[in-house]
Model the fold of this input.
Amino acid sequence: MTSRHRVLVVDDEPQIVRALAINLRAREYDVDTAGDGATALKLAADRRPDVIILDLGLPDMDGVEVIRRARDWTRVPILVLSARQTSDEKVKALDAGADDYVTKPFGMDELLARLRAAVRRAEPAPDTSEPVLVETERLSIDLGAKKVRRDGADVRLTPTEWHLLEVLVRAGGRLVSQKQLLKEVWGPAYQTETNYLRVYMAQLRRKLEADPSHPRHFITEPGMGYRFER
Done:
């Protein structure tokens, strides 16, 4: 690892916090820990972690509320670690702005792999492709400058939202399959997680479409994939 990354671990189970801290520090991460949501939000603001690992069952507030509050001011990747296993709970967390979701009990190797993937998604990748500027009546998407404007106002996207947007825009109107999107944005291990796509496409539409329920630019081809139309 060329530079140390800082991870904020938020969980009210001391044994899980201890196990994560030991494993992360052994792999040269800097680690901060919090046992409740209020402390987590304060540490996120003060310490500026590169990734947050967040349990949903916190003593003072639900973890989904922590995600919502954090998303008011930061794009830091948030990896949920929770005993809640239903699809509805997963979608609720992703919809609030989480980047990934791991259920307890979990394997440490899988969690660390997902953490590395979250770090990679958040880091600016060297771009060897041609810069792309897309202008529509209401949207301006500058892939080279990594800026999006809607109706003249800057729109803030999370790293995951940006990556998804970039893959679709660079496809130039061509259909991008669900499997390809999941592989390019999240990685090969996520090719069956189609609910991730549904949630994140809904977020892009809310932020960038004039009428999210009748999208003009972010088009779904049912059962096949998605495409971006100017």
Observations:
- The helical segments are 14-26, 37-47, 63-71, 87-96, 108-122, 159-170, 178-185, 194-208.
- The domain at 6-122 is CATH 3.40.50.2300 (Rossmann fold).
